[in-house]
Each structure stands twice: as C-alpha cells, then as structure tokens.
Amino acid sequence: MVDARGREIRYLRLSVTDRCNLRCRYCMPAQGVEWVPHSALLRYEEMVRLTALLARLGVDTVRLTGGEPLVRRDLDRLVGALKTTRGIRSVTLTTNALLLERQLPALLRAGLDGVNVSLDTLDRAQYAAITRFDALEQALSGLEAALAAPGLTVKLNCVPLGENDDQLVPLAALARDRELSVRFIELMPIGLGGELPRRTQAQVLARLEAAFGPAVPCPAPALGAGPGRYVKFAGFTGRVGFISAVSHAFCDRCNRVRLTAGGYLKTCLQYRTGVDLKALLDAGASDGVLLAAMEEAIAAKPAAHHFSQGAQPQDEGANMNEIGG
Ligand code: SAM
Ligand code: SF4
Asked: How far, in Å, is the centroid of ligand 2 from the Cα of 27?
C-alpha cells in the first residue's frame, strides 16, 4: 500500500513482548517498569492474523522485536507461522542475543532469515553499566552462534553513547574478517533516549576513518531497502553501516509500520498515531473492518519526525521496549 505521500509500506516491525532480560539505560528504567498486562498482549494467532492482513496491503517483510523477543515462549512457532503466511518473504529477529545460542536451532528450522544482534560494547564492565546486567559473555555466544549458522544474515547494531567511544573501532573491526554488517544507530530522543549523551554519524565516522583509513560508500540500496547507509574500509570483508534518524532523517523513504506488544499499529516512531487493532480484535472485528482500519491509519502516516524540535503534545509516551525500536 502507498501512503498519502507516495511511500510504499512493505516492512512491519512486530513487537512480541515488552518484557526484557536486560535494562539498557536508553531503553528501560532500572525499576518500576509498568508491564503491559498479559491479557493485553497480542497472542501469536492474533499477530499472524494481523500480519496476514497487512500482507494483503503489501507488507512482505517482518522483523520481530520487543522488549526481548526471545523471552516470549516458543518464538519459533510464531516464526514458522509467519514464514508460511501468504505474501511474507522475510522474517528476521532483533535481539540482545542472550538466549540466542539455545534457541537458534529451532528458529532456523522454522525458517528465520536473519538476526540483528544489539551490542554496544565488547568491554564487560561497560556492557554491565549500559545494560545493567553482567551478561556480555552470553551475548557474545549468541552472536557467534548466529555467525556460524549457514545462510543466516547477521548484523550487529551499536548505539554510540559517548561512554562507548573507545569501543566503536573494536566493534567495527568485527566486520574486517567476517560477512557481518556492523551498524551504528544514532540514539533517538524517544523515551529514555532523550536524556542521554549521544554521538552523531559524523563523529563515529571520524573515529573509524582515523583507525581504518577512508571509508568508501557502498552503492545506494535499492528502493524499499532499509534506512541503513553503508561504507567499506580497505581490507574489510563485511560492511559498516549507519542508521542516522537524527542527523540524516530518512522519513521521505520510510517504508515501515510498527505493531506494539499491546496491538497498536503505529505509523511513525515518534507519534502516538495509528490504530488500536487489539481493541478491534477484542470487539470481534471482521477482516474487512481490520483492513479498513489499517488502510486509514497507513494513509495518514505522518510526513516526518521532529526530533530536533522538542516535544509535541501528540508524541509517543511509551519507552522503546514497548514500541520495539
Ligand atoms: N531487545 C532487542 C534488542 O535489544 O535488540 C529488541 C528490542 S530493542 C528496543 C531494538 C533496538 O532498539 C536495539 O538495537 C536498541 O539498541 C535500540 N534502541 C532502543 N532505544 C533506542 C533509542 N532511544 N534510540 C535508538 N535506538 C534505540
Ligand atoms: Fe531490552 Fe533491547 Fe531495550 Fe536493551 S534495547 S532493554 S535489550 S529491549
């Protein structure tokens, strides 16, 4: 489906839970998290039904997110069902990887196409400071398991925060000898992300070029690809990417919608605009009613975020663990 501004919507970020086994400081508070009640979370069957309807509107790519998607039981069952949903070509997962090593075999059997591992540092103490858990080793085992899986696309996502400045070069260096994309994601002023120091794409690139020499831009991706922009360094097997929603906004080519753990179809990360599909499901809505609600919401997708202009009344109030990143 094409929205009112000519953007073709093909990509769904599906948040399967707001729960998480970490508490990254830019994403969740240490304590006092108000969980979405279990009864208000979408069931897998509901997720599959809504995804199938979105596929009828043109969505062909689903990324599972959260909270931490691997803390929801039997995620492979959802992956398998989505993979056999008509129109869905790719099902991938964004994870902190703590539970990945154990669950990967079942996920691969279910047809998982790719994994994005979120990892902001290779330093154990720094990892514990950022995520509030001493779990770097588990995360690295998950990453290694993903890299060893044949045919699985693996990307690493790091949010540069200032305190991990010294880790940007070691993280990027992981792409030197491996078929891995290491991406740096600008911290967005959503939820707790508004309160922390950040580094821009230009600042990160300057550090990387000082270590690896000039970055050579990779050709612009095909229309419909994600927002990442990639470079190569001499001698590197993999690529280094930047997702820079603040300094290089990509709203004009945004192809995504989000379904929160509570069943709200969000059409822009920054605004609470969209439609409460869970309420419609609970009221016994037919496929026709759900499709019409989706179409109306997508048509009205906001033109752009306003990260640089301060808060506005209709802004999203939820933290990132509920939205799914
Ligand atoms: N728990 C999984 C993980 O960490 O990969 C999936 C959910 S997490 C919310 C998805 C992504 O959002 C992670 O890569 C995380 O680093 C990123 N994220 C969270 N808050 C953010 C913020 N304020 N700005 C930019 N990225 C953020
Ligand atoms: Fe959990 Fe992911 Fe948020 Fe970290 S970024 S607290 S791993 S949901």
From this structure: 6
Structural domain boundaries, residue 252: 12-323
| Residue 24 tokens, joined | 């990254």
Quick one: tokens of 22?
């970490």
Distance in angstroms (rounded) separating the CA atoms of residues 116 and 123: 19
Tell me what the mean pLDDT of segment 204-230 comes to: 86
Residue 295 has what DSSP assignment? H
Ligand 1 nearest-atom number relative to CA 324: 9
- DSSP one-letter string for 142-164: HHHHHHHSTT-EEEEEE---STT
Query: 308, 313, 312, 320: which is closest to 192 by C-alpha?
Result: 320
Domain count across the chain: 1
Q: Compute, in angstroms, the gap from residue 188 CA to the centroid of ligand 2.
A: 14
**Helices marked H in 180-315 — which ranges?**
201-212, 277-282, 287-299
Report pTM.
0.95
Q: Is the pLDDT of residue 170 over 90?
A: yes
**What residues contact 34, with CB distance under 8 A and at least 6 apart?**
none
CA atoms within 13 A on the CB side of 124: 4
Flag whether 7 is in a domain.
no
- In-domain check, residue 3: no
Ligand number nearest CA of 14 is 1
**CATH code of residue 314:** 3.20.20.70
The pLDDT tens digits of the residues spanning 97-130 come to 999 999 999 999 999 999 999 999 999 999 999 9
Q: 3-state DSSP call for residue 76?
A: helix
Asked whether residue 70 is assigned to any structural domain, the reply reads yes
Which numbered atom of ligand 2 lies nearest the CA of 23?
Answer: 6
For residue 5, being part of any structural domain is answered with no
